[in-house]
Design goal:
This protein is an alpha/beta fold and 476 residues long. Helix content is 42%, strand content 11%. The chain has helices spanning 2-6, 16-20, 31-38, 44-49, 54-61, 65-75, 87-96, 117-124, 126-140, 154-169, 200-207, 236-248, 250-253, 287-294, 328-333, 352-366, 372-386, 395-398, 429-438, 446-460, 462-471, and strands at 26-28, 103-107, 144-149, 185-190, 231-235, 264-271, 277-282, 304-308, 342-347. The protein is globular and about 75 Å long. Bound molecules: iron/sulfur cluster. Residues 196, 213-214, 367-371, 374-375, 442-444, 446-447 line the site of iron/sulfur cluster (SF4). Iron/sulfur cluster is lined by residues 196, 213-214, 367-371, 374-375, 442-444, 446-447.
């Protein structure tokens, strides 16, 4: 037991088989996971014995919101959900508001296919998750915080509810948190599943009891968020990083990563790779190292054909991008994005038209239905990809009519006289034009991600798409 606390062992771990999970992913520890592991406990008294809740007590009793955000600012913490937005700035914006009511939301409902770190983190150390949420709420001055989980996290919800009950019994949560006289309530909220339910404004709508459609921005949630109050929304890994920074200090935190992307990130590596799993690596680690050094290369000795470095919502990269550093700006410069660190490896001999069609189906099926260009565009993209050989026929535009659920009226795609927006365009340009049309026409980033995704497949694998379209054959 002591050995476990002193020296985390990379690889398969056993915290009572990670709290009863059927399988535990291969896991490579870095500083954040090692810290969580060193205080992973089976009860609150064991967690307290290992130093647990000391940081939350310090944050809520002895530190101001400014002091906490200043530490995060010095550490250079950037959100781990995709955008890489500076966490200190987000928290500062909420903390400066004079609103009487503010909220803090920890989002563990990522919904990204290939992403599996949230479950691991929640099971590894539920009390540390709760402590991190208390720190975040204290920093922004929120009296109410939510931990949002997807519906299939039943075991994780039970673990967190038990931890919350124990914390309440110890007076860490409630009307007099840590004996400071400050009220702090934390709720474990079981949300809807699916990708869009994890979008920050959609989950606020769900908590408010409404249909989970994303809201248009602005206003940003930091100004008008949950119940119209200023709200800080951060994903689970970001919140745990903030706790870690308060614990070890910004200098130690900056020992990993790059000047513009300090710290580490937990990568969920999956697809055609020999050793899929969770890898906590410094930001700035080359993509090549993650796949070939840590993940032990592509399956069956095949060569690499493509990578989705930020999950299926990121633009596809080819082998020429293997030396790109895994960080926010470097991946953006390479034409893709880091997302939430969900890296999917694709081996040679994989049909990229097939992959693109699967990805496009995901976008079509997960569109929430609020904005017509998103609904119509993602639907038509799937139809066109499924019938590349008929791309020049007019009927391909009519095959996928907009579903009637949308609230918006579309006036451009279906032009007067029964003509369609893409009628006069031929070949793969038809898909390109369509995607350009719906790219920025949604209330959330989803339609942009959908369009960017298919555009990246078409740009990188043009010959393969043309082979399907012209010859109806697949070289792969
Ligand atoms: S862009 Fe798509 S997913 Fe986002 S709100 Fe509009 S319809 Fe919904």
């Amino acid at each position: 037991m002591e050995m476990r606390k002193q020296m985390p062992i990379p690889g398969r771990i056993k915290l009572e088989k990670l709290r009863g999970s059927e399988s535990v992913p291969y896991t490579q520890f870095g500083p954040l996971l090692s810290d969580l592991w060193s205080s992973a406990a089976s009860s609150i008294s064991e967690y307290i014995h290992l130093g647990g809740y000391a940081i939350a007590r310090r944050a809520i009793s002895d530190m101001t919101g400014d002091e906490i955000t200043s530490l995060l600012d010095k550490a250079g913490l950037r959100g781990r959900a995709g955008g890489g937005y500076p966490t200190a700035h987000k928290w500062w914006l909420v903390s400066q508001s004079r609103a009487l009511e503010k909220y803090f939301i920890c989002n563990a409902n990522a919904g990204q296919p290939g992403g599996f770190k949230e479950q691991f983190l929640l099971k590894l150390n539920p009390h540390a998750v709760l402590e991190a949420i208390i720190i975040g709420a204290a920093a922004v001055g929120a009296q109410t915080a939510f931990l949002v989980l997807p519906p299939h996290f039943a075991l994780e919800a039970r673990l967190l509810e038990t931890a919350l009950r124990e914390a309440r019994e110890h007076g860490y949560v409630g009307g007099n948190a840590f004996g400071t006289g400050k009220a702090l309530e934390v709720h474990v909220y079981k949300s809807l599943g699916g990708y869009i339910a994890g979008e920050e404004t959609a989950l606020m709508e769900l908590i408010e009891g409404k249909v989970g459609h994303p809201r248009g921005k602005p206003p940003l949630p930091t100004a008008v968020g949950l119940f119209n109050a200023p709200t800080a929304v951060n994903n689970l890994e970001t919140v745990l990083n903030a706790r870690y920074i308060i614990k070890v200090g910004p200098e130690q935190y900056r020992q990993h990563g790059t000047p513009y992307a300090p710290g580490t990130m937990i990568f969920s590596l999956s697809g055609h790779v020999n050793r899929p799993g969770l890898y906590e690596l410094p930001l700035g680690t080359p993509l090549r190292d993650l796949i070939f050094k840590h993940g032990q290369g592509v399956v069956d000795g095949l060569s690499l054909k493509a990578v989705l470095p930020g999950g299926i919502s990121s633009a596809v990269l080819g082998p020429e991008s293997l030396d790109v550093e895994l960080a926010f700006d470097t991946l953006h410069d390479a034409g893709s994005d880091l997302g939430s660190g969900t890296v999917i490896v694709i081996a040679e001999r994989t049909c990229m038209v097939d992959v693109a069609t699967h990805v496009s189906r995901f976008f079509r099926d997960n569109s929430c239905g609020k904005c017509q260009p998103c609904v119509d565009g993602t639907g038509r993209t799937v139809t066109m990809l499924s019938r590349l050989d008929r791309l020049n026929e007019k009927s391909i535009d009519l095959a996928e009519r907009a579903r009637p659920s949308s609230r918006r009226t579309l006036t451009v795609i279906n032009a007067p006289g029964g003509l369609s927006y893409t009628d006069t365009i031929e070949g793969l340009d038809k898909i390109r034009h369509l995607s350009e049309f719906y790219k920025y026409r949604g209330d959330c980033h989803y339609s942009t991600e959908a369009a960017t995704s298919i555009q990246s497949f078409l740009a990188r694998f043009t010959e393969e798409f043309e082979c399907h379209r012209v010859n109806s054959t697949c070289d792969a």
